[in-house]
Amino acid sequence: MISWTRIAAIIRREYLERVKTKAFWISTLLVPVFLGAVMIIPAWLASRGGGTFTVAVLDFTGRFAEPLRAELDDMLIRQTSTATEALDEAGIIPGEQAETMGEMVEESLLDLTLVPLDSSGDPEAARENAKSRVHSSEFDGLLVIPATLPDEGQAEYVAPNVSAFQMLSILERSVSNVMVADRLTSAGLDPEAVGELTRRVDLRTMKLGAKGQETHDQGQGFMLSYVFMMIIYMTVLMYGIYVMRGVLEEKSSHIVEVIISTVKPFELMLGKILGIGAVGLTQFLLWSIMMVAISAPGAAAAVGMGGLELPAVPAIQIVFFVVYFVLGFLLYGTLYAGIGAAFDTEQEAQNFQGAITMFLIVPLVLMMYILNQPDAPLSVALSLFPFFTPMLMFLRMTLTPVPAIQLAASVVIMGATILAATWIVGKIYRVGILMHGSKPKLKDLWRWIREA
Amino acid sequence: MSDPILEIEHISKRYGDVTAVDDLSFNVPRGSVFGLLGPNGAGKSTTIRMIMRIIMTDEGRILLDGLPVDDDRRRLIGYLPEERGLYKKMKVLEHLVFLGTIRGLKPGESKKRSMAWLEKFNLGEWATHKVEDLSKGMQQKVQFIGTILHRPQLLILDEPFTGLDPINTRALKDLLMAMSKEGVTIVLSTHVLQQVDELCTHICLINRARAILDGRLEDIRTDYGGNVWRVSSDLDEQALGELPAVTNVHALGDEMLVELEPDSEPRELLQALAAHGGLESFTRFVPGLENIFIRVVEEDRSHD
To answer: What is the C-alpha to C-alpha distance for residues A28 and A275, in angstroms, rounded to an integer?
Structure first.
């Protein structure tokens, strides 16, 4: 019979010793900062993509320079309003704030000025002359529109820096639009009418909820499930490795025999896993408190962030987020405990540790498939595979209304797997923690399981 | 032997083809200081680990106070393993409280006793330091405090003097003697015979997985010493040889070792010596434990 008072003493030590470390508090503070950075920095960098460019234009057709400038101005203005709209649409930032944000974006947006050069005379000489002016940094680049453009569709951009992608793409689209308009006109068509007729479809995605409600979803749902899935991945891995290191430490410091002379090896293992798991839950709790504090209007204003409204997450997803962390941690933590017991050092344990970590990484690889077909039979099967369930079933929950029977099945299957893993690892653990010196092979582990 | 605190009855342990302990039996009398002796690899640690249920016996049983040792009752024993250590990052007092609680003490009681022991060992000011900040000697003291915190009536120490400097060895011996006086039974395994000579009242000598010698140290000495007496007088070898019941005489420095017929009383010899005059001393010859140890192990080997 196992004794819960003994296990409680182990849990207490594991929990207090870890919660009292600096590492715990640093990771508690840094992970949200890191995740925030992952979400905000790319957006910020994209908005910084702009810069100021002055581009010389050599127009050998003699009729493109002016329409091109108009088109470009038009496109730059559209770019700004698109940014504002996108921010609003994404729902990350509500309307009014999106406008101010849009203005901020505008300031950092591309500023592209075209300077038409004289293209009369010898084309080669004019080109060479313009090139030398680019060389002397008078211009950032040179756009050459050859007389053959409408027929061949080839223009040239000459510059020391040809990797300013955003600027180049806008320039290319402007030239292209002007040229198409020119071709339409010469074919006797009205470019505006054609533009109206050939307007592309804007696919508005509505997420259909379990109760038939529709929510406008344009990626923020995915973003959030991705972040949550990454948190499950990171925490299960991190806390699993903590279990392994804890067991290794007990072996290398030789305290393990002192403890198992009063506590059963199984109780020690269970206490360690549960204690470390409790630390993980504490960290989640602290993160939730931080989230609530940040999204509270008063606090946000004080921080000067203008209030970051988080998309609402259904309560069931929060519940299952915690459930899947707990189950995932119990499963992987148990396996890592077995590895810690079987080996003397982390180096020796590396191969086995890597094999188990692979099970955690595979779901990240399978993610794209599930995203595209969350209800396909293969997706259902993969999400019910206990080693993948914590991440993949959670991902499916955020994408599609998963039938309750599948959720229940996933929990039951994981529970059974955890019990089986605990039973098997318990045997490896019992033998392993007293072994020193020899590095066991898979064959030895199998013998331990059979004989213990 | 009427009141054993610990009874080992026909225990065996095999690992594959290797027999670590083979049908081993012995009793530890209450209040004794019991030395578990034997060459390296004889099965001492395996035996102790089986008593502590760290490994399970294949056969036989182990009784503590007449009842089988189980997972709860083994906590009545204070056990110091050969492989011992502490959590390096824990604070000394918290560590002791933890060791007390896994042995069944309430945290408050555990803390009180830990602090008292730390004070007694002059470690009071180290209570809030991390274990890793302590010297090795201090860590060994903390380790020992953890072993006796729950006031065990039986103490089992596996090679307790290994790694101790002479000062700490002395201190530990004194403490063990003091605890023994208070009635605590102490079982210690060692291969340093000098410590056995100093401390033990009883021994069990294990060689090649079996007990080959077991009993009161005094009795064993007498048995192996035979009817030999140490005489210091002005008689020479030949004169002594002619005295009644004498079978053999050895010169040992200034003294003579006089061996008598097995069942004869030394009184006659003493009277004869006194009659000759010039008798300075007359004592029983006690062989060193080392002699006995080597002799018994050699004999055991020659049985093959």
So the answer is: 17
